[in-house]
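Notebook, p. 212. Picked up where the previous page left off. The plan for this session was modest: take the two constructs that came back from the sequencing core last week, fold each one, and keep the raw output in the notebook itself so nobody has to go hunting through shared drives later. Recording the first one now, exactly as returned: residue sequence, then the structure token string.
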Amino acid sequence: MRTTVTLDPDVEALLRRAIKERGISFKEALNQALRVGLSQRGTKEPRKFCQKTYHMGFNPQIDLDHALSLASAMEDGVILRKLSSPK
């Protein structure tokens, strides 16, 4: 298949280096690079994500597992105060 490809300068440099080292054509270098890159794509198992945690140096006075319900309750209190205050 004939197509036009726009390469980033670093990718072009890598291909040119492969051409010189292996003594192959541009087409062969590009096809080999694509075969290797695309065939290895799904072979490696993805790394597991691990979130780093840090001790903040204090013990919370409230249960932060329910922070959204706490925020909602605090917001309700503010709204009630605004509604009950005379304008």
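Okay, moving on. Second construct, recorded in the same format:
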Amino acid sequence: MTSPNVDLLREAYDAYNREGIEGVLGYLDSEVEWRNPPESPNADVFVGRQGVRDWQRMVDDAFRQMRFEPERIDELPDGRVLAVVRFRFRTPTDELDLEVPIAHLVTWRDGKVTAFSMYVSEAAALEAARLLPPPDEGAA
């Protein structure tokens, strides 16, 4: 049996893949914090539903035909939800179809997403969630 937040996140991915960003707005708290990966050249926090629309306009310049295909969605011990996702897209210039693994860490309150953070890997998301120790900086 899955948790309600896991089920809602699956629905939200389906809605995005069908309808784009407008499909997910109903799942978002009015003051949602939507974060790009820290490694992104556009690392930033986009606040509120309009901020999420602004994020979509920004990424539309870099990606076409975006799809998020969850491979696994798990509720974490603190109630947040971790999704390991295949991000599929087409490049606008070369028209290449690409896919990359990414992770999303999602915080819910009263059935709405209050924080949505993107990471370049599951390990990075788990580290941000403080469920993995940070990499040993002294390791060779």
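Notes on construct two before I forget. The helical segments are 4-19, 21-24, 48-60, 122-128.
Flagging for discussion at group meeting.
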